[in-house]
Amino acid sequence: MTVFNMLNIKKSKFSKKLMAFLGMPLIFSVIAYVLVYFFAQPLISPLLAVTNLAFSSNAGREVYSGKVFELVDIKEPVDETIPASSISFPKYGDQYARVCIEGTKVDTPVFFGDSKELLKKGAAQYIGSKLPGFGGTIIIGAHKTTHFKDLESVKIGDAVTIVTSYGVYKYTVNDLKVVDPKDTTAYDLGADHENLILYTCYPFNMMGFSKKRYFVYAEYTSGPVVDVSK
Amino acid sequence: MGKKLRVKDTRVKAINTLSAFLISLLFFISTSIIILSYTVLSPRHIIIVLGKRDFYKNSYYELCEQLELIAEPAGIDPDVLIQTTDSDKLKKDIDNYIAASFKQSVFSLDTDRIEAEYFNALSAYAKNQGYTVDGELAENLRNIANAVAEKYLQHVRLPLIDIVGALSASFKKYLAVVLIFSLVLIFTLTCCVFIINHWRHRAMRVFIQSIISSGIMLSALPAFVLILGKYKHINILSGGLYLFVLGYIESILKLFICSGILALLLGVLLMLTAYRKMYRRALSH
């Protein structure tokens, strides 16, 4: 028997053993997985549907972007028209502006969104309302115990200033009201003129959950108008 | 005569292959049942993973954050509520809830007592601040105490535990029957293989094939899932709960992989032992 024949025999014996102890188990495993999938189909399909809902494709679990916008470094508003394309729009959770009311201690950052976590950090804008300069209703709320603690000292005629990353806006307080939180006539989100509503819980000195809201209404005085067509 | 022997040999080989597959499948099923009984269907395992992943501590901190969010807008010092919340009691209540879910017994938490504790703490705080606790203020404080008790209950009632508990209670008996049936079948088939095969090393080869196959079945898919890591992208906002679910899934996958590796090692060991004996016999002849 030549060396070549001996090697061939050894090679074929080795490949037989490889097939027996590796190849066959791999084949058995594949068949087993197919069988389990086939018989467990009634259970697997709804489970896969649930996992598709529960599992996302990205790893991020952050809810808020938390960006802090750089505000304009001017004190007074400039009456001009600015194109909407030049504005960087805030996302939910971004700190995009600052609101202060003259003659009061109200001077607080404004966040886009109104969750409990954001209300803890500052004033929070209802995202269903418009941004300053867009010619609609702006609704901003904060807690009576923290950032809007001094809202009760606001009087009619006081100036409210909102400093954003694209301009400074001034509003003049024209009404003060105590309203029911479920009263939808207290504000008009579809208004075609720019107006500002600041609100907080009422009464101010009552401990506990408030049943009323204190609304401060202000009309637009000055500030750049945003041209949405550009 | 030669043709008859070849046919008989082919038939025996077919039976061997089928037996190897069936034995490996039954090994896989019985090992999976044992692992699932000690993990998914066991409240003790859930409690162990909760402890290892610091869930109790994280849950307490998250509850305290929630209490802050309730207290601050209400004009109350959050420490009043936080100091009334006992972390050890929270842990005990969570463990009781898990145990009750698996025993399918009614879980009762004395929410009236919890509410009363918070109300008393709030009343004491209000009096210290110079308020008289009556009428509207008392009602307000009761509302806060009620909201806090609800938050506490939310942190005790872990999501989906009641469903897992119900599944465990329903399937445990059937799984026990399937396990016993599988083990009996494994024993029967193994005996048949050894009886049918004239050459013992062939029967041993069938058995080794089964062990190695079951090892691959147990470890391949869980290893793939663990390496792929898609389960880490589960959408759970609560940090503590997220860590627990991650740890829970990983512990089950790792148990499957370890048992698969053990089966593979056993298969290799048996293979080496069998071939060593054969080699020695061949040398002696």
Kindly describe this structure.
The complex is a heterodimer of chains A (230) and B (285). Chain A is α/β, with parallel strands linked by helices and 230 residues long. Chain A has helices at 3-39, 41-54, 116-121; strands at 81-83, 95-101, 107-112, 123-125, 137-141, 159-164, 168-179, 195-202, 212-222, 225-227. Helices cover 25% and strands 28% of the residues of chain A. Chain A has an 8-stranded mixed barrel with strand order 2-3-4-5-8-9-7-6. A two-stranded parallel sheet of chain A has the order 1-10. Chain A is elongated, with a radius of gyration of 32 Å. The model of chain A has no long low-confidence stretch (mean pLDDT 85). The model of chain B has no long low-confidence stretch (mean pLDDT 88). Chain B folds into 2 domains: 2-45 and 172-280, no CATH class; 48-156, no CATH class. Chain B has 285 residues and is an all-alpha fold.
Topology overview:
The complex is a heterodimer of chains A (230) and B (285).
Chain A: H1 3-39, H2 41-54, E1 81-83, E2 95-101, E3 107-112, H3 116-121, E4 123-125, E5 137-141, E6 159-164, E7 168-179, E8 195-202, E9 212-222, E10 225-227
Parallel strand pairs in A: 1-10, 3-4, 5-8
Antiparallel strand pairs in A: 2-3, 2-6, 4-5, 6-7, 7-9, 8-9
Chain B: H1 2-38, H2 43-52, H3 55-71, H4 78-84, H5 87-103, H6 111-128, H7 135-156, H8 161-196, H9 200-228, H10 239-284
Helix pairs in contact in B: 1-8, 1-9, 1-10, 2-5, 2-10, 3-4, 3-7, 3-10, 5-8, 6-7, 8-9, 9-10
Radius of gyration of chain B: 30 Å
Largest sheet descriptor of chain B: none
- This entry's quaternary arrangement is heterodimer
The N- and C-terminal alpha carbons of chain B lie at a distance of 28 Å
What would you call the shape of chain B? elongated
Which fold does the CATH topology of the largest domain in chain A refer to? Sortase, Chain: A
Helix content of chain A: 10-25%
**Count of distinct strands of chain B:** 0
Q: Going by CATH, what is the homologous superfamily of the largest domain in chain A? A: Sortase
Order of helices and strands of chain B: HHHHHHHHHH
Given as residue ranges, the uncertain stretches of chain A (5+ residues, pLDDT < 50) are none
Low-pLDDT sequence parts of chain B: none
Q: How many DSSP H or I helices of chain B?
A: 10
| Overall geometry of chain A | elongated
Distance between the termini of chain A: 90 Å
Beta-strand percent range of chain A: 25-35%
